[in-house]
Arsenic transporter
Amino acid sequence: MPKGLGAYFEQNPDAEIVIFAGKGGLGKTTSSSGLAYYMSQVKKKRTLLFSTDPQASLSDIFERNIYGQGEVEILPNLFVVEIDADRRVAEYQQRVKQKIMDMYGLDAVPREIEEYIDSTSAEPAMYESATYDAMAELVARKEYDIYIFDMPPFGHGVRMVAMADILSKWVEKITDARAKVAEYDAVAATLKGEAAREDEVMKELIDIRNKIKSFTDLLTARRRTAFFMVLIPEQMAILDTERALTMFENLGIEMSGLVVNQVYPAELLQQDGTSDYLRNRVAMQQEHLRTIAQKFGDKVQAVVPMFTREPKGIEMIKTASEYLIHCQVELPAVRGGVA
């Protein structure tokens, strides 16, 4: 029987970053919110729950508007962030324009350059870059005991994890090129008898590189980072999870475990009055759960039931947390063996 996430964190007390990944609509937000509740209210850790989903999923589950509001304290020790990535991209573009004007003593950015900068908001990677930067910035400040990230739907999530390495290498190359330019500037200034100017762009690039490096090191540090996939007992979710495990492994990230969500109670098969529709749903799930047990075995850390109502509001998050932490639902036995 899966032991629940509580057992995982008892065995891995150094974990300070937790990432929930998976397809949309499977329960990542419920899982991340449930763990955040447990860490903040039961373990009394100063907890930051961060949504990287462009949909306002945390606002929805906590039933209050936190989108773009910064770090909002929901309960003692529990802080929630739901960034407005579009606004963050716009602010970044404005900073770039300001730096160009400051560096060259301009009153305005030339029109063709401004159009180019504005067009970057349509770049596919710009949202991930802005979100990733916000994640790295929060972790770099070291103001919380544990950081829990609710990743966007699977495709975006993989790109965001890969983005760490891509951004780091990109900044490294730009920094090297900038360093050579700075050397030439210093030589030219010396020959003219002038003091070399401090390169503000260079300083910022080095700061970005250091921030990204420390965060990517943390992402791949198995003792300090826990990476969970959330799935439901359906065929497509099982196939997606298999592919995801391979992709994350190729990125150098080892999966800490799986959370199986939205499971109907097996007892419904034995109860009188269960409709044929529901009986068929439960029977189908039981078959898929056997497949999950067979394919993933001890990777399954927790099994969370289908609730009678949506897991919204503090009380329902607390209920979901109890199942997530102290797994009370067993996987069915695999035919020809035991799960």
Notes: The longest strand covers residues 225-231. The mean pLDDT is 80. The radius of gyration is 24 Å.
